[in-house]
Design a protein that fits this description.
With about 220 residues, this protein is α+β, with helices and mostly antiparallel strands. Helix content is about 40%, strand content about 15%. Strands 1-2-4-3 form a 4-stranded antiparallel beta sheet. The structure holds flavin mononucleotide (FMN). Flavin mononucleotide binds next to strand 3.
Length: about 220
């Protein structure tokens, strides 16, 4: 698979098959992903992978807590900036509308939308979760490094026929994640990622999200042609 094919075929997969992912494949993906660049080569990422019994135990803990704490535990960082402004506000809105349109859920049907969102906490059926954390003393530049590491994982996964869904939804369970993984106190949980084989028959996976025109985010100067 060419890099361009991996980039183009990566989408946020929201319905997975239960087919397990072998340990050697997960390890190979992480080994390859660690070639990501990082400022000063700090490699400021930490990743914890769960599958099988530990994953079932973890999801069971969250499911039980959801009964008394439906909104989770709050978050340690702003998942979005407060008072999200334009054009970002509209992009976020459009992305949600397009997603629910693929599922045939109208705007008025809030319960159905919430039920779909709650599928985040079942990993959309994926057999593997990756949890990404970072040393709290790190700054915005190192958070960017973690993003590049995550992108490498998502692209390399495509070469193995696997799909992913990065999931900041897990941020509202940061205490439970940290406790379950026994993260050192210095580490802040950032984001989860579902990993597995896509269920190609599920309409939700047909969503192809929009992107802004190049001119909206790029300038090019000094090129000859
Ligand atoms: C850091 C990060 C966190 C995300 N968190 C979630 C999430 O919790 N649940 C979800 O369904 N999608 C999540 N997404 C997926 C985005 O909605 C998605 O990347 C965006 O709409 C573009 O669509 P695409 O990934 O299919 O190209 C997240 C993406 C990123 C990069």
């Amino acid at each position: 698979m060419r890099v361009s094919e991996a980039i183009d075929s990566r989408i946020s997969c929201r319905a997975f098959r239960a087919t397990p992912v072998p340990k050697n494949i997960v390890m190979e993906i992480l080994e390859m992903a660690k070639r990501a660049p990082s400022g000063g080569n700090l490699q400021p990422w930490r990743v914890d992978a769960l599958t099988g019994t530990p994953l079932a135990d973890f999801l069971g803990i969250v499911r039980a807590k959801q009964r008394t704490q439906p909104a989770g535990e709050g978050t340690e960082y702003h998942v979005y900036p407060p008072n999200l402004h334009e054009p970002y506000r509209s992009r976020r809105f459009k992305c949600g509308e397009d997603l629910y349109a693929t599922l045939g859920i109208p705007r008025e049907d809030k319960p159905a939308r919430l039920r779909h969102f709650a599928r985040n906490y079942e990993l959309f059926g994926a057999p593997v979760v990756l949890f990404f954390s970072i040393d709290r003393r790190m700054g915005v530049d190192q958070w960017a490094d973690v993003g590049m590491f995550m992108q490498n994982i998502m692209l390399r996964a495509r070469e193995h026929g696997l799909h992913t869904c990065p999931q900041e939804a897990w941020a509202i369970w940061y205490r439970t994640v940290a406790e379950f993984l026994q993260l050192p106190a210095d580490y802040m949980f950032f984001c989860g990622m579902a990993l597995g084989y896509m269920d190609e028959n599920e309409p939700v996976n047909k969503l192809r999200t929009e992107r802004a025109q190049l001119a909206e985010f790029a300038t090019l100067q000094g090129f000859d042609t």
